[in-house]
Amino acid sequence: MIDQQDQVQRAILIHTMRYEGLDYRDPDLRLIEAQGLAEALDLIVVDSHHEPVRKIRPGAYFGIGKIEELKALAESLNADVLILDDQLSPIQQRNLEKALQIKVIDRTGLILEIFARRARTREGVLQVELARLSYEKSRLVKTWTHLERQRGGTGKTGGPGERQIELDRRMIADKILKLKKELEDVKRTRALQRASRKRVPYPVIALVGYTNAGKSTLFNLTASADVLAKDMPFATLDTTLRAVRTPSGRDVILSDTVGFITDLPTELVAAFRATLEEVAQADLLVHVRDISHAESDNQKRDVELVLDRIVKDMPVRPPLIEVWNKVDTLDDQARTYVRGRAAASGRDGTTQSVCVSALTGEGVKELFDLIDHELALDAKPLNVMIGPDQGAARAWLFRKGAVRHEITDEDGAIHLQVRLNEHDAARFVAQWPQALDSQALPKTYVSTSMKQKSIGNCDTEI
Questions:
Q1: Torsion on CA atoms 427, 429, 430, 435, rounded to nearest 10
Q2: Cis ω for the linkage preceding 201 (within 30 of 0)
Q3: Coiled-coil regions in this chain (predicted)?
Q4: Element holding 206 (H helix, E strand)
Q5: Which CATH architecture has domain 10-115?
Q6: Fewest beta carbons within 10 Å, which of 15, 318, 388, 398?
């Protein structure tokens, strides 16, 4: 990993282009993304370039000639770190460091280092530490090249004892076991919290998406929160939950989650399992996309790959809608085109999409209208009649955002057309069994002698 020193370190950044055509991402944009990751660690990138690779060498990744070129470049630029935007084996990393005489870090190590510096909560620190230890366990060979043995016995007789590398591996294995036990406690706590929320119950909406797509900015806007939202990768690592009331009056829980990225390390997915279960068990996933990014479609593909890994063990995958964020950064022609695509979405099995700007608030009302629609798909229509003294029942229905039509007759009885899911309907009937009206609303209620109200826009702020 990168040494955390007081002085700023100078880095050379290389994105390798393989001839096998394995990378479907634009190499220039991939290089820019990797540079953003390096700068997130306060590194000074003194050189960044593409490097064509015909064949990856199992010993040191590059051939001898290329290694000599890189060594000369590092010496001329006085570089401290070489960042390779690819995955390195422990042997490759060790041999490159030995040949270049500088620190070498691959893409996985770079992302893990960012996570280590950004984690703030106890849970986040535990998860990142577990991921780092799992990554470093196989890389001890690069630290202990001499493999000296610790003497056994009293010093007079006995066997050679453990090698230092064996001792360190055992210590790391013990730490990993301890961290996993602590994270099991976190997992149980989260399960209890989810069970408690289900008793409320408010639907949980999880914001997911590529890192730096604007999830936290949208979360702050809609939930009146103040989580860190900056133009940098992985500004958010710790899941944040807030209760939100939509314009229709529906109460929901909004969840801001960690961002995804291309080649997200498997160690992180495994370590963040407890956190990512919040995504897998959400009632609705809102995929926030940076629609202004040149590789928005490829980023969508990467997010979907990670989601597939998260929800693969779930019996039912949560429904998903897309938020096309940052439309305020598009020119008029591009905005018109994107809006047309969003308006046409949802047909022929495609994902329903909505255009928004988390910075200006544009499109947020349309987003919550879509959320209300998705959450109401499993709701069933009911006719309810309550007396003028049963204001609590009426208020409960309005808090749920369930009321579609309301009429008050001459006797003061209130007749409502509502939509409730099976769970909420059971709760309502259990609390107010006499309120359920088995007959449809009589047409005679619509007269000049009655007070009639149609439910329109709610005044409640998001």
A1: 130
A2: yes
A3: none
A4: strand 204-209
A5: 3-Layer(aba) Sandwich (3.40)
A6: 388
What is the rounded radius of gyration, in angstroms, for the C-alpha atoms of the chain? 28
Question: 445 — phi, psi (to 5°)?
Answer: -70, -25
Residues making up the chain, counted from first to last: 462
Q: How many Cα atoms sit within 13 Å of 211 on the Cβ side?
A: 21
Residue 392 in tokens: 């609590």
CATH assignment, 202-375: 3.40.50.300
The per-residue DSSP string of 20-73 comes to: T----S-HHHHHHHHHHHHHTTT-EEEEEEEEEESS-BTTTBS-HHHHHHHHHH
Strand order in the sheet with 240-245: 240-245, 251-256, 204-209, 284-290, 320-325, 353-355
Q: How many CB atoms lie within 10 A of CB 26?
A: 13
Q: For residues 109 and 97, what is the distance between their CA atoms, to the nearest angstrom? A: 14
Q: Which residues of 182-215 are buried (b: 16+ CB within 10 A; e: fewer)?
A: bbeebbeebeeeeeeeeeebbbbbbbbbbbbbbb
pTM for the predicted model, two decimal places = 0.72
**pLDDT-based confidence at residue 378 (cuts at 50, 70, 90):** low
Burial grade of 275 (CB within 10 A; 0-12, 13-18, 19 or more): buried
Asked if the domains 10-115 and 380-454 are classified in one and the same CATH topology, the answer is no
How far apart CA 259 and CA 238 sit, in angstroms, is 10
Q: From 147, 190, 196, select the one nearest 169 (Cα to Cα).
A: 147
Distance from chain centroid for Cα 431 = 38
Contact status, residue 30 vs residue 15, Cβ threshold 8 Å? yes
- Residue 163 sits at φ, ψ, to 5 deg, of -70, 155
Structure letter (DSSP) for residue 346: T
Q: What residues does each domain of the chain span?
A: 10-115, 119-182, 202-375, 380-454
Range with the lowest mean pLDDT among 50-59, 87-96, 318-327, 393-402? Answer: 393-402
Residue 383: beta bridge partners?
A: 417
Give me the residue label for tokens 């041999």.
Answer: 95
* CA atoms lying within 13 Å on the CB side of residue 84: 24
Beta-carbon contacts of 53 under 8 Å, excluding residues fewer than 6 positions away, are 16, 17, 18, 19, 61, 62
For 380-454, CATH gives: 3.30.70
- Read off the pLDDT band of 447 (50, 70, 90): very low
Amino acid at 90: P
- The answer to whether 403 and 455 have CB atoms below 8 angstroms apart is yes
Q: Which amino acid is at 234?
A: F
Question: Nearest Cα to 314, choosing from 280, 278, 351?
Answer: 280
What are the tokens at 348? 């022929």
DSSP 234: T
Distance CA 272, CA 237 (A): 10
The mean pLDDT value for 409-418 works out to 84
